[in-house]
Specification:
By secondary structure, the chain is α+β, with helices and mostly antiparallel strands. α6 runs antiparallel to α14.
């Protein structure tokens, strides 16, 4: 007897595959009767976004189709909308948002609030050359509502040689050279301007005064400005750097000096009308000779890409043979979980929890958790079922491959000496590394993601199977053989039953590793509950990350508690 978890996984996989609708027998689709949008009327400020939902009414019920409809905006200069229904305001006005799906259409009204005034703060900003100052721009809307919109406003400088804005951090103004410049902020069709003053420079110098580098080595030079008001300014990143002979030494835009060949050059920094120059020497020390020799020993790994491409071209049937059973099992389980009514899955989880823990309170608790999972958001349940399908497929693979390898290693020390360092290496490698060969060999998608998950989750199943069988008392095995048991009978009737707790613990650990990996596999478009989390992180959408994050937590608790190695004893 292999144990309740393996039996449960195998039985579940078999039932789901048999219950899954085949590719040649699609379930009939209901006819769409109406399409409606939510919200039907809303408003946003310029540069803000609002999520529209599209619900299709079928004969069988209401379904969310926000990801499938064709979205459009009546006035794109006022607001635009992406393929997922996320509308963004640009300038004040009202536009009509339209969704079309299977011959049905629906509309909603989106109003972008008018900006009544715009003001840059502080008034007449002043700063030193090379220094930065963060400006704010306050927008006033109808109803005396004021807010800082510096992060979403468009900033510009009339003369970037005097002062320029950081492209990565809106509103961050950096002095480039002495003088006055007009800075402008635009937001929602309104414009505000201010005059910025950059302090004049009394003297410019370069530090160190006599730089020296080896060929191939670098040294950072600093341009320091002495200002009229007595202060100093770091000008390295705003100065214009030049070299008298680039064949001897080169200088980057931020003052990084690199030696090329032995010799002497003049390095010059210029800020506005101020200039400073220093002599730079390029010489070859013993340490420089050694460093140059080491730097030139470059190893190219282009042959790896060539070998993988040739393997895919020459032996496509090998990779197809590996993917085919995974695709069939994964597709069957996923189709079945999505085809089964949600309440059947919820009741099944509650029943399994009651059976595993011999407690009706545990059954009700797990049932409530699955209900919460279903009501978090329209798409969370679907993503959760995709994740569950990948986990079940990966753990079934771990059981079918890992347990036999563990048995073999337990009964053969030579095999164990080979397997052990491999398992050590597999458990040391970071999960992301498993995605690299998977993508190279099999591409992206759910099947490659599941294969990477299977490989990552395999070591605990092998290790603990080997450990469990080795921990069976030798006297027990000898007694079984003394009574005439064959090696196969000893394995199935003595060693495996006694090693069951360790084997089940190994599969439980494999399951939890698989759970962590399928979330990471969203990076390679594997889908599942990791996909909305990845999207929310990329968009810095905290509200959008909460429902799938809670769903991830609930699914982890359910899977961990239902796959413990021992079934709870009946309460009396």
């Amino acid at each position: 007897m292999v144990g309740p978890l393996l039996m449960l996984l195998a039985a579940t996989a078999g039932v789901l595959v048999l219950a899954a609708p085949s590719a040649h027998a699609q379930l009939p689709d209901s006819e769409i009767t109406n399409l409606r949008l939510e919200p039907t009327q809303t408003s946003v400020r310029p540069a803000e976004s609002v999520q529209f939902q599209a619900f299709a009414e079928f004969d069988s019920g209401l379904q969310d189709r926000a990801q499938e409809v064709e979205w459009s905006s009546g006035a794109t200069e006022i607001a635009t909308i992406d393929s997922n229904g996320l509308a963004t305001g640009h300038s004040s006005g009202t536009t009509e948002i339209t969704a079309q799906y299977e011959g049905q259409s629906a509309t909603a009204t989106l109003t972008v609030t008018e900006v009544t005034s715009l003001e840059i703060l502080p008034v007449q900003p002043s700063l030193d050359p090379g220094a930065s100052k963060e400006l704010a721009v306050v927008a006033e809307f109808g109803g005396d509502v004021r807010m800082d919109v510096a992060e979403v406003a468009t900033w510009s400088s009339a003369d970037s040689d005097v002062a320029a804005f950081d492209q990565q951090q809106p509103g961050l103004l950096t002095g480039q050279g002495p003088g006055s410049v007009e800075v402008t902020a635009e937001y929602g069709g309104a414009t505000a301007t201010e005059t910025a003053e950059v302090a004049p420079i009394a003297e410019l110098r370069i530090e160190p005064a006599e730089p020296s580098v080896d060929p191939g080595e670098t040294q950072r030079l600093q341009a320091v400005a002495e200002l009229d008001h007595g202060g100093q300014g770091k000008m390295s990143e705003v100065a214009e750097w030049t070299t008298s002979d680039p064949n001897v030494a080169r200088i980057s835009d931020i003052g990084l000096l690199r030696g090329e060949t032995r010799g002497t050059v003049e390095i010059t920094a210029r800020v506005g009308e101020q200039r400073a120059s220093v002599p730079a020497t390029v010489d070859q020390s013993l340490l420089g000779v050694l460093n140059t020799a080491v730097d030139r020993e470059v190893v190219s790994f282009g042959w790896v890409e060539t070998a993988i491409r040739d393997a895919n071209t020459s032996f496509p049937w090998v990779f197809d043979a590996i993917q085919w059973p995974v695709a069939q099992l994964l597709g069957g389980i996923e189709a079945s979980l999505k085809w089964l009514p949600w309440y059947v899955v919820v009741l099944a989880v509650g029943a399994i929890a009651w059976w595993r823990m011999n407690s009706w309170t545990a059954g009700i608790g797990f049932l409530l958790m699955m209900l919460i999972l279903g009501f978090l958001a329209p798409q969370v349940w679907r993503f959760a079922m995709e994740t569950l399908a990948m986990i079940v497929t990966a753990v079934v693979g771990c059981a079918l491959v890992g347990i036999p390898i563990g048995i073999w290693a337990a009964n053969n020390d030579r095999v164990y000496r080979v397997v052990r360092p491999v398992l050590d290496a597999m458990q040391t490698i970071h999960p992301f590394i498993y995605l690299i060969p998977t993508v190279m060999l099999f591409g992206t998608g759910a099947v490659p993601g599941t294969l990477a998950t299977f490989v990552f989750a395999l070591p605990p199943a092998v290790r603990l199977t080997n450990l469990g069988i080795r921990q069976v008392p030798g006297e027990t095995v000898e007694a079984a053989r003394a009574f005439g048991s064959t090696d196969r009978q000893t394995l199935w009737e003595v060693q495996l039953p006694l090693a069951r707790p360790a084997i089940m613990q190994g599969l439980n650990q494999s399951l939890m590793l698989a759970y962590s990996m399928v979330v990471i596999a969203a990076i390679v478009a594997a889908g599942g509950i990791g996909q909305p989390i990845l999207t929310a992180v990329q968009r810095v959408d905290i509200a959008g990350a909460v429902p799938p994050g809670l769903g991830l937590l609930i699914l982890a608790i359910v899977l961990d508690r239902l796959t413990q190695s021992q079934r709870a004893a009946p309460t009396t």
